Amino acid sequence: MNDHRSGARATAAGLSAESLAKIDREIAKYPPDQKRSAVMSALTIVQDEHGWLSTATMDAVAHYLAMAPVAVYEVASFYTMYNLAPGGRYKLAICTNLPCALSGSEAAAVYLKRKLGVGFNETTADGLFTLKEGECFGACGDAPVMLVNNKRMCSFMSNERLDELVDELRAAAPGTTTA
Ligand code: FES
Predict the structure, then answer these.
(1) Is residue 164 situated within a structural domain?
(2) Which of 37, 81, 142, 157 has CB atoms 3.0–4.6 Å from 30's, for a disulfide?
(3) How far apart are CA 8 and CA 42, in angstroms?
(4) What's the CA-to-centroid distance between 153 and ligand 1, angstroms?
(5) 147 lines ligand 1 (CB under 6 A)
(6) Are 98 and 63 contained in the same domain?
(7) pTM for the predicted model, two decimal places
(8) Is there a single domain that holds both residue 114 and residue 158?
(9) Are 15 and 57 in contact (CB under 8 A)?
C-alpha cells in the first residue's frame, strides 16, 4: 500500500492533514523500514491536536506506522505523558517518586489536592485541572517538581508557588474574567 492511501485512511480515522505532515517529518528521521520508531512522536502530535488518545486515533497511528494496534496501546499506556481519557484543560502532574517524595512532593500533592478539591486522576468541576502522579522527570534536585500539560516544567513548588501557578493558569484560561 502506498503512503497516500495510508494517509487517506488515517485522516478518515481522525488524524488531520497537519498532524500527518508532522508525523511524516518524524518518520523521515528513521530508516524507511523503521518508521515505527516514530511512534512516541506520532502519539504526542496526535495528543496535542485532540487533547487525549482515543482508541480510534491510536488505531490510526498504528495503521499509519504499520504497527499492530496493541503495540501502540502498550507505548501509550506505559508513559504517563499520554492521556488515555479526556481531562481538564491543564494536566498537572506532580512527581511523587522517592527522591521527590523525600523532598516535599507528598506535602505539595496534599496541598494541591486540598486547594483544587480533587484527588489524583480527577478533574476539577470547572474542567480546568486534572491532577496526576508523574514518574521521575529527571529533575530530582528541583523537588517538588511538576509538569503542566507535559511541556512546562515547574521546579521547587512550595505552597506559594503552587498558588501562583494555579492563579496564573486560571487567569489564562479562555472565558476567565478577572474582577
Ligand atoms: S524523582 Fe522526581 S524528578 Fe526525579
Answers:
(1) yes
(2) 37
(3) 16
(4) 12
(5) no
(6) no
(7) 0.82
(8) yes
(9) yes
| Ligand 1 touching residue 101 (CB < 6 A) | no
Question: Would you state the cell numbers that stand for residue 147, as one nine-digit string?
Answer: 509538569
Atom of ligand 1 nearest to the CA of 96: 2
For residue 161, give its domain range: 90-172
The length of the chain is 179
Number of domains in the chain: 2
pLDDT per residue of the chain (179 residues) written in tens, 0 to 9 = 444 444 444 454 678 999 999 999 999 999 999 999 999 999 999 999 999 999 999 999 999 999 999 999 999 999 988 999 999 999 999 999 999 999 999 999 999 999 999 999 999 999 999 999 998 999 999 999 999 999 999 999 999 999 999 999 999 988 765 44
Cα of 161 from ligand 1 centre, angstroms: 18
Among 49, 78, 107, the domain-final residue is: 78
Q: CA nearest 21: which of 31, 32, 34, 7?
A: 7
Cβ atoms of 82 and 47 within 8 Å: the answer is yes
How far apart are alpha carbons 50 and 70 in whole angstroms?
Answer: 20
Last residue of a domain, one of 25, 56, 78: 78
